[in-house]
Specification:
The complex is a heterodimer of chains A (about 160) and B (about 160). Chain A is α+β, with helices and mostly antiparallel strands and about 160 residues long. Chain A has 2 helices and 10 strands; from the N terminus they run E-H-E-E-E-E-H-E-E-E-E-E. Chain B has about 160 residues and is of the alpha+beta class. Classes of the chains: A alpha+beta (about 160), B alpha+beta (about 160).
Chain lengths: ~160, ~160
């Protein structure tokens, strides 16, 4: 990982890549929530199958707000990692996990006890930072449950800067 | 049941809850009018990056949303359902998966319709925060009061 990309666009994070479908299996907490990532046309589509374990308030029942936030952030992450690969490797993604700097979630509708789907739009993919907007929905894509704005550090070199 | 009794019995947050809070085994460490603190025991399934062995950011968001919401409910005159309107989380440093995560929450403004709360996640030292959140909550939303709020009511809050 010696090449430093200075142009925006497909900044490769270096190292071997992995199938997109295996990404969340490699992230223990994402696997615990049952998250999945796949290609829908040219775009990454993420799925969070409903499970009673994801509920926050069982009396509604509604998915926990933190679970919805986690899925939004995971959708943004998968989309960034996919975009870091060259277009010819369309069903693959990098295996270096970008570090999230901040996430801001807007909750738009109650998230019911149903499967949830997510897609993200990369606002900017630079050499160090990426800004991504993720949207998640359930029954109707035009009625999103929540959206989030996420900033990722995409090309931090291990050992660069202070690490606690 | 007195407030002190409730605190003594609180033990596991949402004990017996079939949802995510029971799944994670979050523990209430302290509960007072001016805020609360919860603990997430370390767990290999909490890891977000195997190479670095750090806690997944989503767990921090789940804990921060939970404490901000509970801190807001605690301030209500009558326990009532609330809903997160927005939540902003800044990740200040990585959390080693070998440590328990502690999160404190405080509601610093309760309006007629909206409550404002903040949460701080850390490991050993509260002066070295790992993540900071600001949340806003709509008050008096539809549905039943969350179990925790019902418990607070039972405790005479």
């Amino acid at each position: 990982m010696t090449t430093k990309q200075t142009q925006g666009g497909t900044a490769s994070s270096g190292g071997a890549d992995i199938p997109l479908a295996e990404l969340f299996d490699r992230i223990p907490f994402a696997a615990r929530l049952g998250l999945r990532a796949a290609l829908d046309g040219e775009n990454v589509l993420c799925t969070m199958p409903f499970s009673a374990r994801l509920v926050g308030n069982p009396s509604l029942p509604a998915l926990h707000g933190g679970i919805v936030a986690t899925f939004l952030e995971a959708t943004a992450l998968a989309t960034v990692m996919h975009a870091q690969r060259a277009p010819e490797n369309n069903n693959r993604c990098g295996q270096d996990i970008p570090r999230v700097i901040s996430t801001t979630v807007d909750y738009l509708r109650p998230a019911g006890p149903k499967d949830t789907f997510g897609q993200a739009e990369i606002i900017r993919l630079g050499s160090r930072l990426s800004t991504v907007v993720a949207t998640v929905w359930q029954d109707n894509r035009d009625k999103p449950v929540a959206r989030a704005n996420c900033h990722f550090l995409v090309a931090a070199q291990p050992g660069a800067g202070k690490r606690n | 049941m007195s407030w002190a009794d409730f605190r003594g019995q609180a033990g596991q947050l949402y004990d017996g809850n079939a949802g995510i809070l029971g799944e994670l085994g979050l523990i209430i460490e302290s509960l007072a009018e001016d805020g609360l603190r919860i603990r997430l025991p370390k767990n290999p399934a909490s890891v977000g990056d195997r190479e670095w062995q750090v806690v997944h950011s989503g767990l921090l968001m789940i804990m921060l949303d939970t404490v901000c919401g509970l801190a807001t409910i605690q301030k209500l005159v009558e326990p009532a359902p609330i809903a997160t309107l927005d939540l902003r989380v800044d990740y200040l440093r990585a959390v080693p998966a070998s440590q328990d995560v502690l999160v404190t929450g405080q509601c610093y403004k309760l309006g007629r319709n909206v409550g404002f709360a903040k949460g701080i996640a850390y490991t050993g030292n509260p002066e070295d925060p790992a993540a900071i959140a600001n949340g806003t909550f709509m008050l008096g939303t539809a549905g039943d009061t969350p179990p925790m709020a019902a418990a607070l009511k039972a405790a005479g809050r």
